[in-house]
Amino acid sequence: MDIAALSMGLSQVKVAQQANISVIKMAMETSESQVADLLKVLELNRETMEQTINPYLGGNIDISL
Question: Which terminus has fewer CB within 10 Å in the chain: N or C?
Answer without folding.
Answer: C
